[in-house]
Amino acid sequence: MSLLARIVAGAIVAALFTGCASTTAKLPPRNLIALQQVQRVAVLRFAGPEELSEKATADVISAVRNSGAYQIAELPSMSDINGGVVTKMNPMVMHQARMLGVGAVITGKVRVRTDTKALGGSLSFGDPTVYSTVSAEMLDVTTGQSLYKLEATRSYMGELESSPKSRDSLQNVLARLTEQSAQEVGTKLGGRDGTTQVQLAGATWGSGAAEIKEGNQAAERGDWSAALVSYQEALEENPDSHAAMYNLGLANEALGNSVEAIKLFKKARQYGDKDMYAAAARRVESTERDALLAMTRAAQYATQTQPHYGQPYGPQAGRPVQQQHFGPHMRTAGHFAAIRRLPPVP
Fold it and tell me: What is the model's pTM?
């Protein structure tokens, strides 16, 4: 057998035993209760190219308003330290939003790019592909915690006209794609869904394949507890199954065990689909960073609006600082001191 034939045969056997992504399931939102309690929202100006971001913001607001899911409140015009429009959540935004009875603030960003098939140097061939992505995040104004994060992308492949008045000029194509992406984002925000659709890894046959199939069926139904048991059994049958590792990571993520999920995703990446498994690890790590940032934002707001927040009280007033409690968002005295040094809320 030739070397090429051996490589092909090996790839086929590996695919049969460990499988590939074959179906999808939905991860439940980590903050569904908080998301459902929000009645009034405000939308900050989206970041990105000015000629696109302003219209994208208006399109998202229109779609959210048309959904009837939320009341839309307008925040007073605010400028950042450079005199530009405020596009990110900060204590000033939290303060203004709370004063207006807003439960959550929506922030977002517009990103565009153009891809061409390069031959080398400045030479290229074929029609370029243009992409416009609109991402958005809904943040709780009390805690700063992310309630919902999503994005939508639209693309166009074809010849771009040089005349700016042409329907297929780069400017008009980007405007059209951005509008479509923004409308999709606004519609999803108005749906109060909050779920994240993920790919499940499958196994055609071999050790643990039957258990993986059972787990995938449970995950598709939304029964992640049953799926977790099946994936654990699959991994016991075949400890090298990266499909079982990855799917077990998804089950742990769905059930709130982020630390274990990240470990499993990173371990699976050593055996199989590096891109998909690495993306899953990044998603969970991003969620954990968001939670830590939310804790910091909430503490920042509390310490700057409540003078005695975090101060020793009652019986613990005389204890060493390491034994004192600094409020629900404080982990250490050092953390508390760092929060105190942040810029004040206007």
Answer: 0.58
